[in-house]
Write a structure and sequence with these properties.
With about 350 residues, the protein is an alpha+beta fold. Among the domains are: about 20-115, Rossmann fold (3-Layer(aba) Sandwich), CATH 3.40.50.20; about 145-210, 2-Layer Sandwich (Dna Ligase, domain 1), CATH 3.30.1490. Helix content is about 35%, strand content about 20%. It has twelve helices and 13 strands. The strands form three sheets. Strands 8, 9, 10, 11, 12 and 13 form a six-stranded antiparallel β-sheet that branches. A hairpin with a 5-residue loop joins β8 and β9 (about 225). α2 (about 45-55) packs across α12 and α4 (about 100-110) runs antiparallel to α5. It starts with 17 loop residues before the first strand and ends in a 7-residue tail after the last helix.
């Protein structure tokens, strides 16, 4: 996708608001991207697109850059008194699992915010916990086990089969994922678990690898849910023997994306029954994990047509032109309208204990 800014809306928001956009300090976007390359813009593209869309809608945008303390947020909330906080944080203290703590703090202050609630974030971002919840609701996911940091894996549980896929239990954005994440024996598994422990710094999750098609689907809403068409990730020029998995290189290396012919779009040749099944599953996942605001579920479909949930991603990438926004464009949401809808959902969400 090229790094272009979000388009101007057809109409401005009915009620202009003070919107505090909460983001990581290094990702504060510049006033203009004129003359910058796609690679330069890509670092802060989501932040730029969201802020631009909010401004085009007529809202007053208050940018808050956060590193490792809450003081900048507290100061902005006290001095500017925003109507809503647009949350673009994906981690805190370099830990993906701690983004829920920031949202919980906002709830303690009775501050309206966009995106997922802290309980849904905590459950979904702990990949092992989320799979246990999904299993309780009889939603199909790969079988797995977890190796805590400081521990070594022992054998292979009887109910699991090779190959396995080894990844972080709690980090997202394909952190630590490569072709070597697919392991076929005990030696490979031990080496990859050690890599996750030492290089990613989290527990390692070892799940059965599902060979098949990579699917995603977006969900939007608090009580009433809307879903996108089923989207698929295509790698048209992938070398023989290379697995079609979304590695860190696939996700972030523009040159490699061009080399493998990476593209995304509506899933190919899905019959109506299978499309309906996946859309129902997306809603069930969202409700089972207690999500709110917006999320994207990542799935694999094997050769027999069985669909497995890999993970649910609350507050996914909101870049203009990327999968989530493009999926909802098929549902009639232009990019500014999508951003406004997320603001409206944030304003209307009620935390536990509220009237």
């Amino acid at each position: 996708m090229n790094a272009q800014s979000s388009p101007a809306p057809k109409a401005r928001a009915k009620k202009p608001l003070r919107v505090a956009v909460l983001m990581h300090a290094p990702l504060l976007p510049p006033p203009s991207i004129a003359g910058m390359s796609d690679e330069e813009i890509d670092v802060f593209k989501m932040e730029y697109d969201v802020c631009t869309a909010l401004e085009n809608l007529g809202h007053e945008v208050i940018q808050i850059g956060v590193e490792d303390e809450l003081k900048p947020i507290r100061v902005a909330l006290t001095e500017r008194r925003p109507h809503v906080v647009f949350n673009l944080m994906t981690h805190f203290h370099d830990a993906g699992i701690l983004d829920s703590a920031i949202v919980a703090w906002l709830e303690l202050r009775k501050q309206r915010y966009t995106g997922c609630n802290p309980r849904g974030l905590l459950t979904a971002n702990d990949k092992a916990l989320s799979k246990k919840v999904l299993a309780y609701h009889r939603i199909r996911a790969p079988r797995f086990f977890v190796v805590p940091r400081g521990k070594k894996p022992k054998g292979l549980p009887k109910r699991l089969e090779w190959p396995l896929f080894v990844k972080s239990r709690s980090e997202h954005a394909s952190t630590g994922i490569s072709q070597a994440s697919i392991v076929h024996d005990l030696e490979q598994r031990e080496a990859r678990v050690q890599f996750v422990h030492e290089q990613v710094g989290t527990a390692a999750m070892c799940e059965e690898y599902v060979e098949g098609r990579e699917l995603t689907i977006g969900v939007l809403g608090n009580q009433r849910l809307e879903v996108t068409p089923v989207w698929e990730i295509f790698m048209d020029q992938l070398s023989p023997g290379v697995a079609n998995i979304t590695t860190s290189r696939v996700k972030w290396d523009h040159a490699y994306q061009k080399k493998i012919g990476l593209r995304t779009g509506p899933a190919k040749d899905l019959d109506e029954a299978k499309e309906a099944e996946i859309r129902r599953m997306a809603r069930r996942i969202y409700r089972a994990l207690g999500l709110s605001g917006y999320a994207r579920s990542d799935m694999r479909m094997d050769r027999e047509g069985r669909v497995f949930v890999l993970e649910a991603n609350p507050n996914p990438d909101l870049c203009f032109g990327e999968d989530f926004a493009e999926g909802f464009a098929r549902c009639g949401y232009g990019y500014p309208e999508l951003v406004q809808k997320i603001v409206t959902l944030g304003r209307s969400y009620r935390a536990p204990g509220e009237g």
